[in-house]
Give the backbone structure.
Amino acid sequence: MYEIRWHGRAGQGIITVSRLLGYAALLEGKYAQAFPQFGPERIGAPILGFTRISDEPIEVHSAVYNPDVVIVLDDTVPKIVNVTEGLKQGGKMLLNSAKKPEDLKEELKIKDVRCSSVDATRISLDILGSGRAFNTAMLGALIKTEPLVSVETLCKALNERFRKDIAAKNIEVLLKAYKEVVEA
Amino acid sequence: MVLHTVKKVYYPSKVPPFAPQVVPYQGEGVTVRRQEVVGYNGDEAVALAVKQSKVDVVAAYPITPQTIIVERFSEYVADGEVDTEFVCLESEHSAASASIGASLTGARVFTATASQGLALMHEVLYTASGLRCPIVMAVANRALSAPLNIHNDRSDMMGSRDCGWIQIYAENSQEAYDWTIQAFKIAENTTVQLPVTVNFDGFVISHAMETINTLADEDVTGFLPSRKPIFTIDPEHPVTVGSLFLQEYYFEIKRQQEEALQKSAEVVDQVAKEYCALSGREYGILETCGMEDAEAAILCMGSTAGTARSVMRKMRAEGKKVGLIKLWLYRPFPVEEIISALGNVKALAIMDMALSFGAPVGALCSDIATILQLRGNNLKIFDVIYGLGGRDIRPAEIEGIFNEALSVAQTGIVKESVKYVGVRE
């Protein structure tokens, strides 16, 4: 079983991406689970999302405590939340940041973790003229560093989830992030 | 004494796949119908089940974490996908009252609620069961105020557990979907004629997308023909409903109601068998895992059972003889099936996700202690209070409870009869 923890703020689309990834895995014949963990229900509050992907039915219903990968959608969150907590030895971390992954590792004092970064907000701004699709960009970056599902399946999931024109823009964002992500 | 269906699950380290496309159901020459695999959360799964059940009236008021059911269903209505009369009420008290009125006209009725909403319905719940209205209600279990909390525990349903409704607890989104469809058939059976609640853990299930199998619309229609009421309130053929019964008859009416509820287990069992033939998914009164040779076990309900089973697989692989009993049916309480399922187990931990303030133990543990005493059974038990207000129950904590039960089985000594797990003391 592969377990993912998403960090971000309420309103940034964590539920959407955690589900899109799970749904893409489902389309590839795997079992998936995707769920949020809310704090107080207000926009901007730090929240968590989880995705589990497995070849077997998933029975466990607790939160994810030892993720294989942690994805941070908002670079202000690591200042208030311990984003590396419980991350598996040799686990991966992916951040939305214009900074290089080496610098982020030093800044966040991360050891034994393979760190990647992508400037998802800029990619979304360039293509959509707004930062709203940076969550989709993180999906593209994730499957480059960790090929959990194919790009084609994710695009199919996006096409089912969004209106045609919006899906097309999101796919563009996803593919650009897929190309631009940098691993330390 | 005929025991109703107890599903036995085995515990290889790998979980067997459930997609019927992969493993066709092997039973009594029945071919399982092809199903569609979807990614739905518990609320969406229940909304689909209600749509496929061709419900005549939905009267509801949205409340977290049940909101998605009402939202999704209102979309079905707006898109013309259902013929249902959808009534948005100003409160849950009114939603429950409208459900009763609709049900008395002979309609198939669904409503949904949680937490404060269920508490507000409390007095009306007794009217629904007393008037023998076969309403189906989904409850996405949530904590009660104060302090205000939107997250999961089962204080809401446990607070209304004596309301005379059949009470079912689903483990995951798949079960919430399957039980909702079965619930209509159970409720509307004329020997039952009682309302049913399908409970599932708020957020943990209501907001968790999972891989689930859904039946084709026509297969649900085939399984669940339209309701055939014994009588209806009809101006052409007037009847009196809800009249005054004082010292002379009230007691008899209540005695009959209790008998109908106790006997409904037979119908739950029969409906589960029919549903299995259609879907390939086996349901019943309760589910056991590893109880054939277990020395210590956990008894629980809802999503906790899934986490406990995954912990159990790991512990079994380490050679520890632990077992699990998951109740699907909480009311009527399956006395004989539980006694039989206990087998030769020497210690049992009972998981209560609600406090019964001032009581010796939690509500579920109290029921178990009662049936053991009535049977002169000296099994060592202890109660676990956990998960209040959405406090997550971790696999490591469940392993600790299994180990505690194993230690009780070995020593015969219960150190704490009520154990709080996951709370900061």
